[in-house]
Task: inverse folding
């Protein structure tokens, strides 16, 4: 039986990984904000990254798939083949959206971007072509390491990624003539590729561990089993990553479109820092809850501590003058953009605690092999966001970033409630388990 200390020891390296990932957003946006045409380039960077993340979404769940199914050497080899196929698919998807006629239809008619943002975004999107495949490669090997308890090595890879972002970003920033959107996307792609290479190197000990482990009581994972497990989770990520391009589409049709498109990536990256501690909790739950949920009570207890701490920290900043200082000094926003960024940030204070609850309940359903319900929860969230945005666009004159923050909060609350209800039903299959 795991103790709270065991859970914390397992979770802390993973949370540090997500925390460092959350820092890269502020670093890149602050660099872009210090270059000419800051609002246009921030908007172009935010939308380009959102599109790339939507295309990349199928590879996100390769980590949870590896943690759950890489039970022996044969299963790991099959997962590696599966990962290769997924990576080829997402890379072809990136190439497709950068073909000029496809790009023009997407940017001008589907998202309806302002012309100056559309023109700035194209080469930033081109620079992101290798990005999804590198992430898929990295997440497969991270899953192998997490399954064998090498969570510190996962954090080491992210340290390398963060250092690369700082070094490459500073070099490109000092050049001074490179458009901000290209500075951001080239830096991000370079860092992810180097992190993927480092992760493969550090995974060698976890791979060797397969030779010494006792034979699994289950047969090796087949391509069909992997696909059946992964597909609902991949759909979950794909549906979830629709949110940012969808919000951009709505905001383009609302007052102060360029300002809203510029500040939303900044607000999102700031709140993401506090949410990051909860995002890492899904892998903790999948690894430690157990198929009979014997570890649920202690994982839940630690999760409650994390919810309270992260929410209190965000509130302490969001409702004080510290927020103005952070946006203007750390992020480099001008006073006008800072004024647009503060109200949405205050609305999003609910997200850190919801991130923990969301991940905890998802891990229960994944452990129970009820992955379709995970996908349903994300579909409900996206539907809720879309419904709120339609209402706000058609009935109010609210500026876009504020409307987007309101919709994001409402959608996440609804999906978390659904996950809570469905996770309770799964937990009832083991009467000895205490549940919320």
Result:
């Amino acid at each position: 039986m795991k103790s709270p200390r065991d859970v914390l020891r397992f979770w802390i390296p993973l949370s540090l990984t997500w925390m460092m990932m959350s820092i890269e957003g502020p670093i890149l946006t602050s660099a872009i904000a210090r270059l000419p045409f800051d609002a246009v380039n921030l908007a172009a960077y935010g939308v380009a990254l959102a599109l790339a993340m939507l295309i990349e979404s199928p590879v996100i769940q390769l980590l949870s798939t590896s943690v759950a199914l890489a039970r022996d050497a044969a299963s790991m080899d099959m997962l590696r083949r599966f990962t290769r196929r997924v990576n080829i698919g997402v890379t072809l998807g990136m190439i497709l959206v950068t073909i000029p006629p496809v790009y023009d239809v997407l940017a001008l008619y589907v998202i309806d971007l302002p012309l100056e943002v559309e023109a700035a975004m194209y080469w930033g999107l081109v620079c992101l072509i290798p990005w999804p495949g590198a992430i898929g490669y990295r997440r497969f090997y991270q899953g192998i390491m997490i399954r064998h308890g090498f969570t510190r090595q996962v954090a080491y890879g992210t340290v390398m990624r963060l250092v690369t972002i700082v070094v490459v970003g500073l070099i490109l920033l000092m050049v001074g003539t490179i458009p901000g959107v290209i500075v951001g996307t080239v830096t991000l792609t370079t860092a992810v590729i180097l992190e993927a290479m480092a992760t493969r190197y550090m995974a060698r000990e976890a791979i060797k561990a397969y030779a010494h482990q006792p034979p699994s009581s289950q047969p090796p994972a087949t391509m069909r089993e992997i696909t059946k497990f992964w597909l609902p989770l991949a759909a979950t990520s794909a549906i979830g990553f629709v949110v940012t391009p969808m919000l951009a589409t709505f905001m383009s049709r609302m007052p102060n479109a360029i300002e809203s498109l510029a500040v939303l990536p900044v607000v999102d990256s700031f709140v993401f820092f506090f949410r990051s501690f909860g995002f890492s909790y899904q892998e903790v739950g999948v690894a430690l809850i157990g198929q009979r949920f014997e570890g649920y009570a202690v994982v839940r207890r630690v999760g409650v501590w994390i919810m309270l701490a992260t929410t209190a920290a965000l509130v302490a900043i969001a409702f004080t003058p510290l927020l103005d200082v952070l946006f203007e000094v750390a992020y480099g926003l001008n006073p006008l953009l800072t004024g647009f960024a503060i109200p949405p940030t205050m609305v999003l204070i609910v997200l850190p605690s919801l991130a923990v609850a969301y991940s905890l309940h998802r891990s229960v359903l994944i452990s129970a092999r009820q992955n379709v319900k995970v996908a349903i929860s994300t579909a409900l969230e996206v539907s809720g966001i879309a419904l709120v945005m339609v209402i706000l666009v058609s009935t109010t004159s609210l500026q876009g970033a504020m409307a987007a923050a309101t919709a994001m909060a409402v959608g996440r609350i609804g999906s978390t409630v659904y996950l809570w209800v469905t996770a309770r039903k799964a937990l009832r299959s083991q009467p000895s388990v205490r549940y919320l």
